[in-house]
Amino acid sequence: MALLDQVLGYVVSQPGAPPQTQAQPQASSQTGMAGLSPVAKGVMLVLAAKAWQAYSAQRAAGGASPASASAQSSGGVGSFGAGGLLGGLAGMIGGLGGAGALGGLMRHFEQTGFGEQARSWVGGGENAPIEPEQVETALGGQTLSELAKRFQIPVDQLKAELATALPQAVDQLTPRGRLPNDEDLSKL
Q1: Could you tell me the pTM of the whole model?
Q2: What is the pLDDT of residue 70?
Q3: 141-151 vs 132-139: helix axis angle to the nearest 10?
Q4: Residue 159 pLDDT
Q5: Running DSSP on this structure, what letter comes out for residue 34?
Q6: Mind listing the pLDDT tens digit for each residue in 71-100?
Q7: Rounded CA separation 36/89 (Å)
């Protein structure tokens, strides 16, 4: 998924990640975590955790992740390896507000009328689907625009990718049927 590749690239470009290579541009202050809305921080946290889990699983299986393969050719994610990604993810989790950001995202889904879907994503069982237009309603156009600009992808593509990624990611982050705390997230 292209969005997860971009999240991994974004993670390693944040404070807490190792020094950047010459082939990798410096992250501008506009891309920092401080400018994100609370809902966008929750989305970023979920996507970063999903991207890290996918990357870790592929490394454990002996294969290169799509993110590392594409980044190696451009001097991005692959040039740091797992340690760089882990450092970037740890810094990102802290910068996003940790488990509080995920809880805030879930409360936001409740408040916007999508609590039933969001609750189905926590723990075992079937994940209720969410349509791209519902993602827009739930997250709001401003949040989607903010994230689309950050990842330099069209809003419609972002909505479609989030409709697929959010249920899976929240499900993966909540294997015990509860939202993780900061200690749980630190064990990713």
Answers
A1: 0.70
A2: 36
A3: 110
A4: 94
A5: G
A6: 433 333 343 344 444 555 555 566 566 677
A7: 16
- Structural domains of the chain ordered from first start: 2-16+36-179 (1.10.10.690)
Distance, C-alpha 138 to centroid of its chain: 17
CA distance 56 to 81: 11
First-to-final CA distance of the chain: 20
The SS3 assignment for 15 reads strand
In this structure, what is the dihedral angle of CA atoms 148, 150, 153, 156, given to the nearest 10 degrees?
-10
Residue count of the chain: 188
Q: Residue 141 has which token pair?
A: 């156009």
3-state helix, strand, coil in the chain (%, to 5): 70, 0, 30
